[in-house]
Structure formats: C-alpha cells, structure tokens
Amino acid sequence: MYTIAVRKQKRRKRRLFVAGVIMVLLAAAGGVLYRLPVTLQDISRIIQLAAGKFYSSPADTMSAGDVLRGTVYDRNFKELSVSYQLFSLYVHPAKINNHKVAAEKLAAIIGIEKGVIETRLKQSRRVVELADDLDADQAGAIEALHLEGAYCTSCEKRYYPEHAAAPHILGYTVDGVGLSGVERKYDILLQPGEYQPVDAPDVDFKGNTVIGQKRTDLILTLDIELQKAVDKQLNRLLREQGAAVGMGLLLEPASGRILAFSNQPSFDPNYFWKSEGLARQNGLYSPRFDPDLVRPLLVRAAARIEDEEQFTPLLPQTLAATDFGLSAGQYAEVLNRIAFLQPVAQSLPSDVPFKDALSGGQHKNVSLMQLGVGLASLINGGWRITPTFVDSVYDQQRGQRFSLKKEAIGRTHVLTPAMGVAVRRELLTHFGGQKEKLLAFSAGSKRVVPTGTVSRYVQQQLFVGMIPREKPTMLLIMALERNTLDPVPKAKKKSSLASVGKTLLTDLYREAGQEQVAEYPAGKNRENFARFLISRRVEYTRLPESITGKEADMPELVGMSLRKGLQQLSRYNLRITIRGSGRIVSQSPPAGERLGTVERCQLILESEI
C-alpha cells in the first residue's frame, strides 16, 4: 500500500511539473508575441505550418464561403465592393508515397509544371506552399484527390470591380478591416458575424435585436453608370484645360441622396497604397471654393427673401441697383438665415488627415458639399437637407432590407413654404433656359491665396445645373481648379465647363430613368469574379511574348511567392533549381543581369516565420 501511495504521489508531482513547464512555455511565447509586431496573418501562418509538422488532413474548401465580408452595391445592385475566397495549397512531402504521381495530379490543377512540383517535394522535408490564389474549383479538385499530406487553406480578398470610380466614397480595406469611406463607417455591418442595432444607430431594423447572422450587404444611393459619366467628362476637362483638380457632385435636392461624386485625379482602391495621401483625401468636404463664385445666385435669392411681403418682380440686373439695393449686413443676414456657410458634417471617414488646402484671403472658403446643400435649399422649397450615401442594408439571413431612420435623414426648414416656392421661381425664371429645359449657371474667379510665407495663384471655374426646369429633381455641380499661371495647353477642340455641364446634365437626367431597379440583390456577379481572377494571375506577367536570352534581363523575383516567380520566368528558356519553401529571398542570376547564354536559374526560398 505504501508503494502504491508513493507511486501515485510521484505521478501527481510529475503531472504538476509538466503543467508548470507548459505554463512557463506559454508565458514565454506570450511575451515574445507581445514584444514582437506579429500580425494576425503571421500567427495564422505559424499555426498552419505547425499543424503541418504534426498532422495534416484535407480541409473543407467550402467552409468559409458564408463568412465573407458583405458586398457594397450601388442603387441598382451593381457590385462596387465584393469579397472572394481564395485558397493556398500546402503539401507535407514526407506523407506522400509517390512524389511523381502526386506532382502529375497537382500540376493538372494548379498550372505549375510537374517537374517543378516534384523537385520541390523531393528537396523539402517541411510543409511546402505549392500555390496560392487558387479558386474554389481548384481547391475542390485538390480535395477530391484525397491526397494524403495535401490540404488547402482559405483567405479572403476584397475587390473593387469599377476600380477608380467613387473610391472616395467606397474607401478600402486592409486585412478585412475598413480603413476609410463607407468601408470604415459601416465596418461592423460588413464584417461577418452578428451585431446589434446599437452598432448601427442610423438604421431602422424594425425591432430586430440580432442582425447579420449570415451576412449583411450595403446598398448605396450611388448610380455607378452616372458616376462613370461624370468621371469621364471631368477627366476630359482636366486634360483640355490643364487643371490640377476637378470635382463633380450629383444629388437629388429634395432627398439629399448622392447619386455621384467625382474627385479627380482619382485612385484605384485595389491598389490604394500606390496613390499619394492627398489623392485619397475626400475633397468633397475640403473648404477650397470661394463662395463668391455663386454670388449672383445668392444675391438674387437674398433680394427675393428680403422682399418677403411684396413679392414684386425684381428689376433686370442691368437696371437694378448694385446687389438689388441690399447692404452687406442684409446679405450676410440672409446667408446666415439659410445657413449657407454652415459646415456640413464629414460623414465619410478618411485615413488621410483633413486639411484646408486654400485657407486665407478675405472670405471663408466653402466645400463642394456646402455648395450642394446650400443651393439645394433654394430650389427644394426651403429645406436644408442632410446628404446621404446610404440607401439601406440587406440581411442575407432574413432576405430583408432595412432603410435609414427618418431622423437620420435630416430636413430643416430654413424658408417658409411660400418663400421657398418664390425663391425657386425667381432663380428658374432668371437662370433657366427655355430651350435646354434646365437651370444653368457658371462663373470663374482668380485670386492670390496666402499660404504661410508664400502665396498661391488660384483659378477656379464652377458650373451649377438643375433639371427639370419646372421642379428640379437633379442638381449637378462641377468645379475645376488651376494653381499655376502657365498657359492652357493647346487642344484641337476645347470645350468650356458650361457647355460640357449642360450636355452632361441632360444626358444624366435621361439615363437615370432607364435602369430597372430590383428589390433585392442577386448572387455574386460571375463576370466580376472572372475579371478578379484574371487580374490576380496576370499581375506579374508583364513580359512580351517572345524573349530571347540575348536581349532579356533577369527580372526582380525577391519577395514574390514561388508561383508568381515562376510566372515571371515562364517565358525564358531556363532550367530552374529551387531550394527551400516559402517566398523567394534570393535569386541567381541577380535582378537586372543580362541573361545572354545563361541556362540555369536558382531560387532560394524561405518561410516568413
């Protein structure tokens, strides 16, 4: 009995000792992770490789299909931002009995030569990453092989099918987290997983307490076809007139719904890191425009508002007194009354700090959004609106759309209904063209703006258009800015901002009513997915079709995955030797060396861990 008791006590001490060692190791690992800047991707990679050293089994390639980030649509359910699932193939060479047979089977699926695969399997005893950027069909085909030691892991990639269209509104993501635009503001809705109404206080969830059990999509007020039309004309004007900045805002003056916003030059959110910080700043809220650009509109509206009791016709501007007899104080009072100079809250966050690029001078600058909101109140019956980019959210689990709350769509009366109608009639009578059936106004300014120890010469042009003439439902503002005295570049056929604006507004109004809007979004667009895959697979294929060693230089391969490195070398007649696994850390010949009669290339790979 005494012997048995001693043995039990020894076993207990041994278990306590093992548990203590494990705790110490965990604490040490935690300290290392705490001190080192290890990302979630690094940790994931560590776990994957560690799992490969102890065990491996084919993964369920479809397991992550329903937990992707939500899709962002325009008002006609055209994809603006969408997530796809891609896969990486890992192989444990020690668990494969016949490397040659395995290489033949995998080569037919992943598009890498079987000889390259076989060489990698024979030269490595660790887990090898054979390929990345595989689609679900390829991952399914690999799983169907039931190949011992081969398994796929999935990852999520965000894609913007329209590229440089409306990136300042959409924003972008990094590692599945929204960093700007609606991607950032509504990040918690778009993230996979449940959330509560308190997480999105501006949305009316109609009493539902838990949302997003499957996925939540976001439907914007944007119309991507109208957006691209505005982008096209603004870029044309920038080229013809040598302007540095071009902006365009298209909105519904009664509801405040933003149909398009163009900020040129733009950037592609698929490659946002390639653009400068200022290009990513949302110019919609930048107070860079002189309010005197729209002074003729404001003075006439102010004169009508000051004549509140009489409603007598205003004299023609050639006969009327300066500013229709209004004093500077009266004019300022009217602007204050309609809150024209009141800032508009920046509802779209940006990762670039906001700066007043053109501060200084006699006047307080206004933003394009301030101009849009202020002018809308003069023709929508006297309502100051809160502009919005979001139409609704769609819960995939319930198959139900939830719109914004009424209080989130703010409307404040700045003029009485009768006065609002009188002001609209006054403006439309004076600035509305009978032939075009729209209101059109254009102006320009030249000024010197002090910026610290130096001054800047700034030229600005502005176009304001509203359609239809009787009761406008569409307001377009376009602006150009030049920051130089250099001559305007010559052009065979140069168009004015006013002529382009009138034609564009007419076309936009006609096109806006042609789209048949569905009630709910359909499945993901297969054409967009095909373009996404092509963009991933040709990203590094930049070499011409026919390349000979005598005329070619060795490309830069360091930092690439093996697959992408081999894509670069696929057009050269080289025998490739591969050592290690992971990403390429060294190459021979080095980048830039003329290949000449070189026949061999060696790539050294190393894990990121």
- Computed CA radius of gyration, to the nearest angstrom: 31 Å
Could you tell me the mean pLDDT?
Answer: 81
User: Mind describing the biggest β-sheet?
Assistant: 7 strands, mixed
CATH architecture of the largest domain: 3-Layer(aba) Sandwich
- Given the C-alpha coordinates, what overall shape results? elongated
Structure characterization notes:
By secondary structure, the protein is of the alpha+beta class. The protein folds into 4 domains: 2-54; 72-159, Penicillin-binding protein 2a (Domain 2) (Alpha-Beta Complex); 224-512, Beta-lactamase (3-Layer(aba) Sandwich); 545-606, Trypsin Inhibitor V, Chain A. It has 17 helices and 20 strands. It has helices spanning 2-35, 40-54, 99-110, 114-123, 136-145, 167-170, 181-185, 187-190, 224-241, 277-280, 295-306, 328-337, 368-379, 417-431, 497-512, 526-537, 562-569; strands spanning 72-73, 79-91, 128-134, 150-159, 173-174, 177-178, 216-220, 245-251, 258-264, 383-385, 390-395, 400-403, 411-413, 432-433, 438-451, 454-467, 474-482, 575-579, 583-588, 600-606. Strands 1, 2, 3, 4, 7, 11 and 12 form a 7-stranded mixed sheet that branches. The radius of gyration is 31 Å and the shape is elongated. It starts with a helix and ends with a strand. 34% of the residues are buried. The model is unreliable at 1-8, 32-65 and 540-550 (pLDDT under 50).
